[in-house]
Amino acid sequence: MNELIVAGIRRGTKFSPNHVGNDAAIFGLTVRELRKQGCIVHEYPESVLMEDGIEEHLIFNMVRDDRAVRRLQQYEDEGRIVINSAYGIRNCTRERMTRLLIANHIPHPRSLIVRTNIDPLPLLRDAGFNHCWIKRGDFHAIHREDVTYVRSGDEAQSILEEYAIRGIDNAVINEHLNGDLVKFYGVSGTDFFYWFYPTAAHHSKFGLEQINGTAQGFPFDPEYLRSLCNRAAQLLNIRIYGGDCIVSEEGVVRIIDFNDWPSFAPCRNEAAHFIAKRIYSLIHSVCNVQITL
Q1: What does CATH list as the number for 5-88+267-287?
Q2: Tens-place pLDDT, residues 167-186
Q3: What CATH code is assigned to 110-175?
Q4: Mind listing the pLDDT tens digit for each residue in 52-85?
Q5: What are the φ/ψ torsions at residue 259 (nearest 5 degrees)?
Q6: Whole-model pTM?
């Protein structure tokens, strides 16, 4: 077996709100699995990309900082192998994700993309949004207010004003969907896919899972969900992914969030093997090294 020298870049703790330990755990398990397969893994903090950078040609990462993502995009443009792709990571920021999913007919809530300095009341009235979710458009949720459930136009306006003060220029407004909240994790190109009800597992980042309440167990087709998520992953250019969907009483599934390399907290021991296997496979396929997995 040929040894491969691979750089692994951890996620900065700022970008793991209430999940620092979980994000560190899945990264560490993935490193261990890659080393089992004969890789030499050099581990780096995310901050290295804002400083001197790295020399390795083969890179896997959990990066989120915008400057770090830009550096990884530069590496990709130079021909380096980056997993997840930095372009895919950027596609998972809220505004880009919403535009791509809707434009490509991935089931998603009706949504508005707005400037934070506008009066949202006429838009909400015209859209018929009574209850909705307001989400910062430029990034993932770091603070609790970055994803906020609102029950009135006045609340919506207050949240947008707060975003504007924080320098967030755009926001996504999703209609609120009634139904069961389902969380999922997947690794494209492998057999791994895992879903569960976060309220039943007491799994939460900011406690927002309680808005939809305890899951009722509305029937749906897990294979359809898996297929839908893999379609979304391909569209967004993400190999290692997770997210959330709502299943209606009628069994209609709509994706409400899609993330690059989440924590895999409830299934990380199993997931790490498949994540490492996928990274190893992708690296070898690009490097034209013949292996048997």
Answers
A1: 3.40.50
A2: 999 999 999 999 999 999 99
A3: 3.30.1490.20
A4: 889 999 999 999 999 999 999 999 999 999 999 9
A5: -125, 145
A6: 0.91
